[in-house]
Amino acid sequence: MDAAGGEQEQQLSLAAVRDALIRLEDSVVFALIERARHPRNAPAYAPAGGGDGSLLEVFVRETEALNAKAGRYQKPEDVLFFSQDLPSHLLPTKIQPKVLHPLASSVSVNDAIWKMYFNELLPLFTVDGDDGDYAETVALDFACLQVLSRRIHYGKYVAEVKFKDAPQDYSPLIQAKDSNSLMNLLTFKAVEEKVKKRVEKKARIFGQNVTLEDNVGTQESSAGDCECKVDPKVLAKLYDQWVMPLTKNVEVEYLLRRLD
Description:
The protein is 58% helix and 0% strand. It has helices at residues 14-35, 55-69, 110-125, 134-153, 155-165, 167-175, 179-186, 189-206, 216-219, 232-258. It is globular. Mean pLDDT is 90; it is low at 1-10.
């Protein structure tokens, strides 16, 4: 399963979904590292004249429209931040295999992702300040938002795989609309702890300032002592407090529609 391209196998497997999620971790880490090159740049988020919203909002709306022309947003993991009448594709798009329930496209937590990113996450890994480079700032923000959204909405595939593996466990809870029991059934604390440790380690390794004087054999072992581009603990907190809980929210919302 290709996480970057979103191409899905006709038959989902938990191993393939996990592989896609692990590779998306890399994308999340690199996106935050790139955004951390700039300070907060608050003017990019201030309301602009003309009633179109902030520079960020205009950029995201226009970029989503352009992406739609190129054929994006045909896959359940690609979810719009702004609901709008999208333009037609410029070229025919590939017909995607139908591996999820048709109502998968109606599941979205992008509002929560948007609020989390700007209110909670951004202050954790960017410094306060203004370098005036607002165009690149909003482009990098959008890259972060997109990869976080894709990673979180990949929960639809996780839910489908788990449902198919044990429909006898999930169906009664779905029929009873028992969201809390579904959440408990989907939660594996040991797995979540491994994910947090893995993304923290990736942030430590990927965020090093590598020099020619580094010894290959000791580079990784000394990575914990280096000054990383993004604090690795921020990545662990991101996954612990937001990415994994929001992913499970997506899974529950998808499952509640699964028998419709």
